[in-house]
Write a structure and sequence with these properties.
Largest sheet: 8 strands, mixed
Radius of gyration: 21 Å
Strand content: 15-25%
């Protein structure tokens, strides 16, 4: 942090630390990613070769197409309501939505029934999305929160959203669990420290984790994911609802420090260059499932992304696209993109897919076998 401009996020975080003490990991992440002036997602396009990372919709058009067809089948399972809100949270460049809507047009009645809604808080990304969807989705609308979605049947899609929601971290010591926080060291750099954990946080650590903890173990929790599940549950009690979350993480709550930073497609120090790196942590799908069930939702999955996409016809769609191309180089890109999405050694196993549905909504496509 030494030498930072007085108006930088690092300087502001240091001043906040001096005034109020160490920040929780969650508060630090929230400031780095969502600060109105300096937040990572507020003022840049982080996607693609010129950014910091690449997501599945940018790797292959098939990803968004299959999700669009998945949504159409879920809509049918809802009884084909005349009006449907299709809400994507954290829609990136709008690529997934554009590809999903193109595929949706092939399903009779579906495109007419749905209203595309993009839940986005970044002015920079909103502008890119609006440009991307201008020709194909003139009926699209942009909202600042999922709570702003009008009443009615709704399908929610979120790809690589949950991993960017802030986490709290707790370390097991010889004195029990203590919360990991961010402080300013003597040389002016950010560093990790420990403070007493409050009773509510300690109560939220699952017994399956706490009962086997050893000194040095770290446990992470994500309250915003719990709150999102509760919000979906309230909505599902009134209207047909299905949600699809795709992200990287683990199926069961477990020990581990998964906080990481990426800058220019390379790993970075999470506590250097605040606001200049993407900060994420693995998704605890076990915790999300517990919160969803507590909210009255049905939980389907999680399952590996590769199995999910293959069940929806990834290989067949890739073969059809490749067969219709005269340019071998472009055909090769289609094939390599599909493999990258589904191969267990690439994204196919690390990324998981989970669906949450309300009462009286049919089991979503690709999850039927797991329900038997």
């Amino acid at each position: 942090m030494t030498g930072q401009d007085a108006g930088s996020l690092a300087a502001r975080l240091a001043a906040r630390n001096a005034a109020f003490g160490p920040l929780s990991i969650a508060d630090y992440m929230d400031a780095c990613l969502a600060d109105p002036e300096h937040g990572y997602y507020k003022r840049r396009d982080p996607f693609g070769a010129s950014g910091d990372f690449t997501t599945a919709p940018e790797i292959s058009q098939i990803f968004g197409e299959l999700i669009g067809l998945w949504c159409a089948e879920v809509w049918r399972g809802m009884g084909s309501p005349a009006q449907l809100r299709l809400a994507e949270i954290g829609p990136g460049r709008g690529t997934l939505m554009a590809d999903a809507l193109r595929a949706a047009a092939s399903v009779p009645g579906f495109r007419t029934a749905l209203r595309p809604l993009l839940v986005e808080t970044s002015p920079a990304l909103t502008a890119i999305q609006q440009d991307r969807l201008a020709a194909s989705a003139s009926d699209a609308a942009w909202l600042g929160s999922l709570e702003d979605v009008p009443d009615g049947a709704m399908i929610v899609v979120a790809n690589e959203l949950l991993d960017a929601l802030p986490i709290r971290q707790f370390a097991f010591t010889d004195a029990g669990w203590r919360e990991r926080c961010v402080a300013v060291a003597g040389d002016g750099r950010f560093t990790v420290c420990l403070r007493d954990a409050n009773a509510a946080a300690l109560a939220a650590i699952p017994a399956t984790v706490s009962g086997h903890a050893r000194e040095g173990d770290i446990f992470e929790m994500r309250s915003e994911a719990d709150a999102l599940a509760a919000q979906l549950g309230r909505r599902a009690a009134k209207h047909p609802l299905a949600a699809l979350f795709i992200d990287y993480g683990h199926d069961r709550s477990a020990i581990g420090d998964t906080l990481q930073a990426v800058r220019r497609h390379r790993p970075a120090d999470p506590f250097s260059h605040p606001g200049e790196c993407d900060l994420t942590a693995h998704v605890d799908f076990g915790a999300l499932a517990r919160s969803a069930r507590d909210a009255g939702l049905e939980v389907h999955g999680p399952m590996p992304q590769g199995r999910f996409l293959n069940a929806l016809g990834l290989a067949q769609r890739a073969s059809r696209l490749m067969a219709g191309m005269d340019d071998p180089a472009k055909a090769s890109l289609i094939g390599s993109g599909a493999r990258r999405l589904a191969d267990p050694g690439q994204m196919g196993e690390l990324f998981r897919v989970i669906s949450l549905t309300g009462p009286h909504v049919a089991i979503p496509p690709a999850f039927e076998e797991a329900a038997q």
